[in-house]
Amino acid sequence: MPHLTLEYTNNLPDYDAQAALRTLAQAMFESGLFGEADIKGRAHCLATYLVGTSDTATAFVHLQVALLSGRSAEQKQALGQHLLAALRTTLPPGHGAVQLTVDTRDMDRQSYAKAVLAAVS
């Protein structure tokens, strides 16, 4: 825990999602709220999207952060701002108009299940 889900539009052709995930995971770790091995990330490039009612020229990058419940509103707000700053650094040079967003959500701690399995040879 936590889970990072990064979505970005395909009109950012030089966007390096793998590098972005590393940057965001590092920012999560630096927050002091999570252990390094607990941070998980995935990225999805969106081929179908819309900004506003007709704009397909504006790009967007959205980060959803799912956290186990129990952190204060202040911790989540600070984390969101820290991740938004990190997200800015992941944009390729020369990009056009881009909207960046971060959504931090709680997951119910009582119903979350996790298992860590050793490698099987």
Automatic annotation (TrEMBL):
Transmembrane segments: none
This protein's name: 5-carboxymethyl-2-hydroxymuconate Delta-isomerase
Alphabetized CDD domains for the sequence: CHMI (cd00580)
UniProt signal peptide: none
Any Pfam family the entry gives: CHMI
Organism this protein belongs to: Chitiniphilus purpureus
InterPro entries the UniProt entry points to: 5-COMe_2-OHmuconate_Isoase, Tautomerase/MIF_sf
Taxonomic lineage of the native organism: Bacteria, Pseudomonadati, Pseudomonadota, Betaproteobacteria, Neisseriales
